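Z., the sequence and structure:
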Amino acid sequence: MKRARAGWNGAVLVCGKCSRKLDGGFGAKGRSRLAKALRQCAGLGKGRKASVGVIETKCLGLCPKHAVTVVDTRRPGEWLVVEPGEDVAALAARFASPVR
């Protein structure tokens, strides 16, 4: 088995099914999917060198109406339901900060 290094301190799992149902709703113009908008935020970094990885998954099983389910792997007991138009920069800052 080979290993690849990543500078991640954790990962953020974004439900792809929820994102697909909304068809955007995030970012500067409100047209981006949540995972893409989070990756573009300053402070998280990019790719394997990021402080926190952002991964769009299949269905997470919690299906809120008109919102996206998000899980921070550093806080597995606390799932977030993010509605379109919420401040993505504030959400990214939450994930970039160390867990207490």
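Helices lie at 16-22, 34-40, 88-96. DSSP finds three helices and four strands in the chain.

Let me know what you think.
H.
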